[in-house]
Amino acid sequence: MELRQLRYFLAVAEHLNFGRAAQALHTAQPALSQQIRKLERECSGPLFERTKRYVMLTPLGQELLGEALAIVDSVDRLTVRLRDASAAPRGRLRVGSITPATVGLVPRILPTYRERFPLVDLIMDTVALDEQVSALIERRIDLGLLRGPVNDDRILTLPIVRENYCVAVPAAHPLARAPFVRLADLEGATCIWLRGGRGGSYNTGALEMLRANGVSPGGSVEASDIEASFALVASNAGVCIASTVICGLHFEGVVYRALVPSIEIGTMILACRRDRRTVAVINSFIDHVNTLDLSFAPPVRTA
Question: How far is the first Cα of the chain from the last one, in angstroms, to the nearest whole number?
Answer without folding.
Answer: 71
